[in-house]
Amino acid sequence: MRIAVGNDHIGLALKPAVLEELNRLGVDVINVGVDVAERVDYPDYAAKVGRLVQAGEVDRGILICGSGVGMCMAVNKLHGIRASVAHDTYSAHQGVEHDEMNVLCLGSQIVGPAVAHEL
């Protein structure tokens, strides 16, 4: 499994927990998000992840911003992307298993590391 992870400056707070869990699971990660807290435009990072999914270079994507909503709206503008915000395990599971979600959007100001690991 190959997953692209993208984040904006607010999503930076949750990214280490997400990367840690993906590495623990043995997932091949492509990090296209920011690594410094300097303000950036979230749609740019949503597009980077979405284009990697579109091109088949990754199997899935994870986007992280403050609420998950902005990234979700931006990436869903790309053809073939089925992204959703999921802050609970039931929605995340249903999204992948029944709705063909290929990009998970998380809010760093909504969930903490423990919930992110489960998602």
Structural features:
119 residues; alpha/beta; five-stranded parallel β-sheet; 5 strands; 39% helix
What's the gist of this structure?
The chain is an alpha/beta fold. It contains five helices and five strands.
Could you please describe the fold and organization of this structure?
The protein has 119 residues and is of the alpha/beta class. The longest helix is centred in the middle third of the chain and has 13 residues. The chain is globular and about 35 Å long. The model has no long low-confidence stretch (mean pLDDT 97).
How would the global form be characterised? globular
Radius of gyration: 12 Å
Number of strands: 5
Give the terminus-to-terminus CA distance: 16 Å
- The chain-level structural class is alpha/beta
Share of residues in strands: 15-25%
Give the neighbour order of strands across the main sheet: 2-1-3-5-4
Helical amount among residues, as a percent range?
25-40%
Order of helices and strands: EHEHEHEHEH
What is the helix tally? 5
What's the structural blueprint in terms of helices and strands?
Elements (H helix, E strand, L loop, with lengths): L1 E6 L7 H10 L3 E4 L10 H13 L5 E6 L3 H7 L7 E3 L3 H11 L3 E5 L5 H6 L1
Helix pairs in contact: 2-3
